[in-house]
Structures are given as C-alpha cells and as structure tokens.
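User: structure tokens for this one?
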Amino acid sequence: MADADEPESADVAIESDYIDELTGLAEPTQNLMFASSTTLLTKPDPALHPMGKAIGVFLLFICLLGFLNGADYASPNSGLVRPDEFVYRLSLTAPDETATFRGTVTDDNGRPIENATLYISWDDDGIWNSTEKETDENGFFTFEKLDPGLARVDILVERDGYRDVYSNRVLFSPPAIIEPIGFTTIDFSIPSQEIFAEQPCSNGAEECEIRYVDRTGDQMDHPLMDPGASNIYVTIGFAFMGLALIGTGFTVWALKSGSIAILRTAAAISFFGMGHYYTACCFGILAFVLTFAVPKRFVPMQDDFI
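Assistant:
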C-alpha cells in the first residue's frame, strides 16, 4: 500500500513547485496569524451640525422679519412705511420730465366742470416751476413731461361771480421698471359753494371775490397719489410675505435633511425679504456666509454591517 501512495505524493510536489514558479510566491511554511486594525470606516453625518442648526434658527428669525415687512407693505394705511413714502423715495432718483398727470374735475354733484384751470407748481432744487392747463367739456385734463415727486395743484373754478381755488398736495408717480413714463391719475371733486363761503377771506374782509379751500396742510404727511401705485405697493408686500414663507420652508427642510446646500439656498432667499430698514438683507448675507463655515462631520459605519 505504501508503494502505491508514493507516486501520488510526487505528483503533488511537482504541481506545487509548478505553481510556485508560475506565481513567484513561495508556499508559506509558518502558521498564519491574523491581526485587527484600528482603522474605522466612516461616512458623512446625515444630521446637521450644531452650528448649522443655529444658522437655521437664525434664518427662521430673518424670515420672520421679512414676513413682518411684507405685512407692513400689504397694509397701506398703517405700519412703518406707507405707499406715499415708498413712491416718494423712488421719485427722488427718477429722471426729470418722466411723469404724466391726468384726471377729471367735477363739482360736488359729480358734474364735470369745463374750463377749470389747473395750476401745478413744484420745487426743482430751490427753483419753483409751474405750468397750467384747462379742462375740456368733460372735465378732463392731461399734463405731460412733469417731474416725478411732490407738487402743489391749485384748481381755479369761476362760478356765480366768485373765483374758487381748491388746493391739494399731489405726489406724481415715477416710471416703473417696464415703463419709461410714470402715470398719475387723480379725479378731483370741487367742494360746494357753501363750503367755500364758510372759508375766511385771505385779506380779512367779510366778502371776497377769490375764495380758498386749502387741503395742503392736512396732506403734508400723506399727499394725494395714484390709487394704482398703492395697489402695486400692496402687491410688493404680498411678494415679500411669499418669499418669507418660501425661505421658512427651505430652512425647515434643511434642518430635517441636514443639507448645507438647502440651508444656503434658504439664506439666499431670505436676503430678498428686505425687512424693515433692510435688516433681512444684512442678516441674510451674514447667514449665507456662515453656511460656508459649517464643518463636516463623519460617523462610523459599524451599524451598517450589523
């Protein structure tokens, strides 16, 4: 039996030598040993870094400022900023002779007044300019190439031997973004002769040929303006509130998903919320810059192999 096994051992030895020559590796002669490594496999942490969470809370505050700013704009009769203040600021940088003023003049019963004279005067860097026109048979008037901004409008109506002057403070709208000309449309209703008769004469006499009803004193804070400009102002307010809500949604999404990119997007959106006195803009830029300073965290992958 021993003689029968010898050829098999020889064949195994020859095959082992052949594999060693082919691979260039010698057969190990010692017992194999295994050692554990201290290396730990990691993956990016899906949770947001505490600094990122702090920025998220900051962004929620910024979005609140933007929403309050929009609510202020959407309430034209209250708040820190009024439509006339908003339009007046825009008129300060508008080009000269880019305003058109039109409307109608009617009496206290709603009938159009023909040949009523409108005197418009405005301050142009310390120099008072003026222009005048008369209404047509329908009480309609149109002025072109006026300077946007504040002006005084005096309406002279001659009736029953008296010359009644109705004065108002008017704000001419500047051009919009998509229009080269700003349009202001205001319809004037002249007070009744009884109201003019109750006004004192300017010279102190009991009877006067020229009678005045002057509303400019009551309109110093809020002059007359185009109703359409007020509607645009309200629309801007709703746009600010919409941006604030969108920014809030992105912030909550970032806090739940742990995504820095979404958090950075929320900061960019909050920038356009403006806020009162541009607070949201300043804070939005700060939050956007801080998102680049959020460190990356990694967690071990041990749980993935359990």
